[in-house]
Predict the 3D structure of the following.
Amino acid sequence: MIGPNATLENVCFAVAAALNARGISGVLTGGSTAAIYAPEAYMSDDADFVLDASDKLADAELALHSIGFQRVGKSRIFSHPSIAFTVDLPKGPLAVGGDYVQDTCILERGGLRLRILTRTDCVRDRLAHFYYWDDYTALNAAVALQTGASTKWTWTFFAIGPGVNRPSFWLSLPSSNAGLD
């Protein structure tokens, strides 16, 4: 399932299957979640899985090793020799901003199950990413996720007043309203 032409979605399902086979219940979060919900609006080069508190990193490492991933040093990042995507196992608990996440979704494909943030929490995650790291691509993803659109948006940036630390912005909708009703 993981080869040179594997998509991020393929990698996420393969990782989830490997973790599940060892009794580990990771939740896909971060930009990779946005990339699955709105692939035309957002791209990610890694898959972030937050493990349950009872899951051990050493067990997850064995699971990932079984599908060809190797741990990068002593980090929580794993790389695969055939693909550019990495897997990151950030420390939990699963949260968006300061809010702990209780509800998740399960996507199913070809008998495989992928536990993932809900679409709403994915929007909140991308908005938090924008707020804390000034990442306008995350804001673009949040808008696309919320509206159900997968189009690119046009942003006009402006600052008001002396000493403004953050630019304000104006959202220009695409000329076609397809997908916005």
The chain has five helices and eleven strands. Residues 150-161, 167-181 have pLDDT under 50 and may be disordered. The CA atoms of residues 145 and 163 lie 33 Å apart.
